[in-house]
Amino acid sequence: MEFTIKSGSPEKQRSACVVVGVFDNRKPSLSAELIDRASNGYVSEIIRRGDMEGKLGSTLLLHNVRGTLADRVLLVGLGKEREFRDKEFRSAVKAAVKLLNETGSYEAVIYLTEEKVKRREVTWRVEHAVVAAMDAVYRFEDLKTQPTEVRRPLRKLTLSVPQRSDLMAGESAAARGLAIAHGMDLAKNLGNLPGNVCTPSYLGLRALDMGKEFPGLKVTVLEMSEIEALGMGSFLAVARGSDEPPRFIVLEYQGGPKRQKPRVLVGKGITFDSGGISLKPGADMDQMKFDMCGAAAVLGAMRAVVELKAGINVVGIVAACENMPSGRATKPGDVVKSMSGQTIEVLNTDAEGRLILADALTYAERFDPEAVVDVATLTGAMVIALGHVACGVFSNNDTLARALLAAGDDAHDRGWQMPVWDDYQEGLNSNFADFANIASRAGGSITAACFLSRFTRKFDWAHLDIAGVAWNEGKEKGATGRPVPMLTTWLLAQEAPAA
Ligand code: BES
Ligand code: MN
Ligand code: ZN
After folding, report:
1. Which domain holds residue 123?
2. What's the distance, Cα to Cα, between the start and end of the chain in Å?
3. What is the atom index within ligand 1 of the atom nearest the CA of 381?
4. What CATH number is attached to the domain comprising 381?
5. What is the pLDDT of residues 16-71, one digit of tens each?
6. In 3D, which of 264, 245, 249, 287 has the Cα closest to residue 468?
7. Which residues keep their CB under 5 angstroms from ion ligand 3?
8. Does 382 reside within a domain?
9. Residue 265 CA to its chain's centroid (Å)
């Protein structure tokens, strides 16, 4: 979809459709008011008759409204004016775009971006309208022989801003939103692909494609022999049980000054997590194809940053393999040597994410990073702790944690800080190796983060446990594209202000 920014009155738009809001209870927004005046009270008559109450997300499509130049006017319910916040704004936009996509308009001018949202500027509204619109039209049907046909898809959306002086900032906000949406689309597509398609080598190929599409991006894909040569015994302990060869993917982007230390993103790329010899129960095991959503988010955020030509240095690292049982697979009790030199007793082969991240985090040292953020569907316990709303944010540096939380708030892709206190470390003690890969069930997400912290002593580090937010279950089963918005927003906030 294409997006443009415009400023002007709704009744004067020559467009297939003009979209204006109505608040609950039956209160037209300012732009709906303008349509009402131009049409001699047509909108207020409809409201009076009870056909548009203003309930959040409700829609009513009107044709040939007198006094306006557009073919259609779409009324969208915004809910209670006093409660019109981030979430409400986004769902109103989504409802409007879904309807536009399924009806006749190829193009529309939307005025919801003129409505006040608490704490938010016009640039926020534009950026989020773009992200919400792209989310509303997202479909994953590549694997269906008969994809649902969208007869007249929405091709172009014009976002209205209150003043001409908002146009410039609006344009760049729309570009930001579109880059984030493209990053999310990439992350969703990779996440939704099944394990028999989205293998470690497939992820490597897609990363190489990105390198071809964006010349500013240097992509390196390491294969088995190179991974062995690096001494990644912890990563390879997970990969061993599978017939699919592992891949270690590195993406380097230099948008900032040469001497600026890079931010490094590290993604967990388990393309299928069966649990290995500590095999998972059968119910819902299909969802473990999503166990590479951390990797997908790293690729998505890299894409967004590169598309925007952001003035910052970023490295993306993805450790990709399958976790499978076999005669060659790592067994409970096996002791392996990580790239850091530390030995690990693998008490549970289903705690594999931390094993591959251990070596990927050690590898990150060579970039002399400003900060390292790993992203992983790491623990089921995270879903129990924070549900499907916030991801867990763990860090050895509170300033870094706060920056990520703030980015998440801004991007409506929120995190919540969790402790990584030393008091939790002793659960990892082992009688046979330097430490074990699991502790007791209690505080499982925290002890997992404690395990990772043993590989991040040399830099500022944060860990995002996205187990609860990376995909939806049930009827809407599918990858969400999170936390691409949080990561991208954080990275963009690190850009040095223009001199
Ligand atoms: N990929 C899973 C975590 C997971 C489970 C994410 C369910 C989302 C939904 C991870 O590799 C795993 O299996 N973790 C174990 C750790 C345990 C063995 C200490 C878990 O959470 O049960
Ligand atoms: Mn597992
Ligand atoms: Zn896993």
Report:
1. 2-165
2. 34
3. 21
4. 3.40.630.10
5. 999 999 999 899 999 999 999 999 999 999 999 999 999 999 999 999 999 999 99
6. 287
7. 270, 273, 291, 353
8. yes
9. 13
Shared-domain flag, residues 252 and 155: no
Strands in 334-337's sheet, in edge-to-edge order, are 334-337, 343-346, 435-436
CA distance 256 to 460: 19
Question: In this structure, which ligand is nearest to the CA of 444?
Answer: 1
pLDDT 10s digits, 150-201: 999 999 999 999 999 999 999 999 999 999 999 999 999 999 999 999 999 9
Kindly list the catalytic residues.
280, 354
Taking the CA of 392 as reference, the closest ligand is 1
Do residue 284 and residue 427 come from a single domain?
Answer: yes
CATH at 62: 3.40.220.10
* Tokens coding 90: 């986004």
**Are 203 and 247 in contact, with CB atoms under 8 Å apart?**
yes
What does the block give as tokens for 6? 């415009």
Calpha distance 29→115 (Å, rounded): 8
| Closest residue by CA, ligand 1 atom 5 | 380
For residue 466, how far is its CA from the centre of ligand 2 (angstroms)? Answer: 14
Question: How many angstroms separate the CA atoms of 336 and 343, rounded?
Answer: 6
Where are the strands (E) in 58-167, listed by range? Answer: 59-63, 72-80, 107-110, 156-160
pTM (2 d.p.): 0.98
Give the closest residue (by CA) to ligand 1 atom 9: 380
> What pLDDT digit, counting tens, does each position of 80-131 carry?
999 999 999 999 999 999 999 999 999 999 999 999 999 999 999 999 999 9
